[in-house]
Specification:
heterodimer; A: 5-stranded parallel beta sheet; two-stranded antiparallel ribbon; B: alpha/beta; Rossmann fold; 12 helices; 12 strands; about 35% helix; binds thiamine diphosphate
Chain lengths: ~325, ~350
């Protein structure tokens, strides 16, 4: 089975738009919370919304996603509850992780989100193991790990790609190449500058895709997910994207890149392009899209209210969950 | 030694930064490697240079002075560049390698514990590895479980590694200089709560060493010994103020080196005060704090008026929430309370 954008139903296209819009509004709010000193360690995913959206459009709740330090967009695309996410960011007991994990560690297994991870490259082998688990248990679920261009230089990626290839594991290695690892440009750090090419050494498909196009992401991911589900093995996808903000709260991106470069990518904004597509194809009117945006904005506002009204964890929580059981 | 006239108020980061500048200036074998130690790598021709100067700005200015041959931004490949540090150190360089957070040690643990720590011994003393690794430790800024650990106890477990934990700008500069001049692998643990600190005796401009393996008495006292390490030395000093207000004279021993451990200074202090409160932010089990406690119990038992007390986090990972994280870290109040208990 090969997915193409012709397989994209109007409902799915609108879901993708709403998902991206929700991510954008959530991240804008997270930024405000960070500026107000209510949350620390924020890594914004603004600009990268299309990548997990196009992938997760093909996933079920029993498929797993694993993320990075920059994972709010992965969580939202996988269907994690916004209220619980915002509560987690603010360290509340009602958060996805009871306030213990925070922005870099959001997890919700019921939605197949097996966790963001603050150690670069650390989740990649775990994703291979999740795929192994599905295979051994005879389930047709797949595993997707998102990671940055920086993480592509960790040995963990190479070891995991080899494992996944020799065992034909149902896993997608999705590199979000946003051109920078902190302030380090990809052309400096990645030899040969292509991450996708690295698939060749492990005898798996390596695809480069415009990660600012939700439609292209949908198409490429559809093929890779189908391949994994049918037992034909892993795929490496390099999604070319851009982070609009600095690496984290406090850095000035203009100390390592130009305003012209930023503008170039902002002119190819994934949300604007999806809007244009929906209007051109008659799938939605401007009014419809404004309505979706309003709904996303309200969902985020409701999440903040929920988080604000939620209690902080009790002091006893400090030492619970260290073990499942401990004498 | 240190002349009073030269004393200046630098932050911890400025002091360490100055040390590295002077070390690179005085010894061409010193090179620096790590992620974003300069930043914007390869973009000098576009006018971008030294964009970050390290995640803490601790290596700011180095690339402009010493160039990209000696100041190297690395890909995110800790096993690769820490291991490269071992090889470079074994063959004539004195690399300073930045491991951004101690929690990332796992990515390159093999290079640290199997190579850096053991090469000198395994090769019959014929090869040395004068490698210095600096890394960021500690809780306090809601960085959660993977970015807030202390972990020096873990490295002290390995023979062959030296581990130092500066507590203020003065000890930071002196320990950086000692570490990079040392012929053994040394890990320097920088606590994030100390980075902007200007307290302490002030920082002389000239190069000086704070000896590795030596503790220092940060405040003299007679009634109880408080031992601190890194950030907890500051906590102990604050607690000592509070205790003084209640009429008790606390001696604060700043341990500074986790390995080698300065047994003598600890024992001397305890023999004088007959009571000890050991304050440490690392995990409590099999830790430096338990080592100090064992030392005192084994070698100063007859002098003690009360059993040694440890003030540490509970046996748990570091929580994110602002409601929980302060409960993890040893606090001024916690130290005062523990001291009050042994003083009674
Ligand atoms: C093993 C490890 N090394 C270093 C870091 C510090 N760090 C956090 S994010 C980051 C850059 C990651 O770049 P990339 O993988 O491209 O992801 P992006 O931030 O662009 O999303 C670095 C170096 C880390 N978290 N883990």
């Amino acid at each position: 089975m090969v997915t193409s954008t012709s397989d994209l139903t109007t409902d799915k296209a609108l879901w993708m738009f709403e998902t991206m819009m929700t991510i954008r509004r959530f991240e804008e709010q997270a930024r405000r919370e960070a500026d107000a000193g209510r949350l620390r360690g924020l890594h914004s995913s603004i600009g990268q919304e299309a990548v997990p959206t196009g992938v997760c459009a093909h996933l079920r709740d029993d498929d797993y996603v694993l993320g990075t330090h920059r994972s709010h967009h992965h969580c939202i695309a996988k269907g994690v509850d916004l209220n619980e996410m915002m509560a987690e960011l603010l360290g509340k007991a009602t958060g996805t992780n009871k306030g213990k994990g925070g922005t870099m560690h959001i997890a919700d297994v019921n939605k197949g989100m097996l966790g963001a991870n603050g150690v670069v490259g650390s989740n990649i082998p775990v994703a291979a193991g999740v795929a192994l688990s599905a295979k051994v248990q005879g389930r047709d679920s797949v595993s997707v790990v998102f990671f940055g261009d920086g993480a592509a230089n960790q040995g963990s990626l190479h070891e995991s790609m080899n494992l996944a290839a020799i065992w034909k594991l149902p896993v997608l290695f999705v590199c979000e190449n946003n051109r920078y690892a902190e302030s380090t440009p990809v052309e400096y750090a990645v030899a040969g500058t292509s991450v996708a090419n690295r698939a060749e050494g492990y005898a798996m498909p390596g695809v480069t895709v415009d990660g600012q196009s939700a439609l292209d992401m949908f198409e490429v991911a559809g093929e890779a997910v189908a391949r994994a589900r049918e037992g034909r093995g892993p795929t490496l996808i390099e999604a070319q994207t851009y982070r609009y903000m600095g690496h984290f709260g406090a850095d000035d991106p203009l100390s390592y890149r130009t305003a012209e470069e930023e503008q170039y990518y902002k002119d190819r904004d994934c949300i604007e392009r999806m809007k244009a597509h929906l209007i051109e194809t008659g799938a939605a009117s401007q009014e419809d899209l404004d309505g979706i945006d309003a709904r996303a904005t309200e969902a985020v506002a409701a999440a903040v209210r929920f988080a604000d009204e939620s209690p902080y964890p009790q002091p006893e929580e400090l030492t619970t969950d260290v073990y499942v059981s401990y004498p | 030694m240190v002349t009073e006239s030269a004393v200046r108020r630098l932050t911890y980061i400025q002091a360490a930064n100055e040390a590295v500048h002077q070390l690179m200036e005085s010894d061409p074998r010193v090179i620096v490697m790590g992620e974003d130690v300069a930043g914007a790598a390869g973009r000098e021709d576009q006018g971008f240079i030294d964009a970050w100067g390290g995640p803490l700005r601790l290596t700011k200015g180095l690339i402009q002075r010493f160039g990209p041959e000696r100041v190297r931004d690395t890909p995110i490949s800790e096993a690769g560049f820490v291991g490269a540090g071992v090889g470079a150190a074994a063959t004539g360089l004195r690399p300073l390698v930045d491991l951004m957070y101690a929690g990332f040690y796992g990515v390159c643990a093999d290079q640290i514990t199997n190579n850096a720590a053991k090469i000198h011994y395994m090769f019959g003393g014929k090869v040395s590895v004068p490698l210095t690794i600096m890394t960021n430790i500690g809780a306090g800024v809601n960085s959660a479980a993977q970015h807030s650990e202390s972990l020096y106890s873990l490295f002290a477990h390995f023979p062959g590694l030296k581990c130092v934990v500066p507590s203020d700008p003065f000890t930071a500069k002196g320990l950086y200089i000692s570490a990079l001049r040392d012929d053994d692998p040394v890990l320097i643990f920088n606590h994030k709560m100390l980075m902007g600190l200007r307290a302490g005796p002030g920082v002389p401009e000239e190069m000086y060493e704070v000896p590795i393996g030596r503790a220092s008495v940060a405040r003299e006292g007679a009634d109880v010994t408080l031992t601190g390490i890194g950030y907890t030395t500051q906590v102990c000093l604050q607690a000592a103020d509070d205790l003084a207000a209640s009429g008790y004279s606390a001696e604060v021993v700043d341990l500074l080196s986790v390995s080698p451990m300065d047994e003598e200074t600890i024992l001397e202090s305890v023999k004088k005060t007959r009571k000890i409160v050991i304050v440490d932010e690392d995990y409590p089990r099999c830790s430096f704090a338990s080592d100090v406690s064992a030392l005192v119990a084994e070698q100063a038992f007859d002098y003690l008026d009360a059993p040694p007390v440890r003030v540490t986090p509970p046996h748990t990972s570091v929580p994110y929430s602002t409601a929980l994280e302060p409960l993890f870290m040893p606090s001024r109040e916690g130290v005062v309370e523990a001291a009050a208990a042994v003083l009674e």
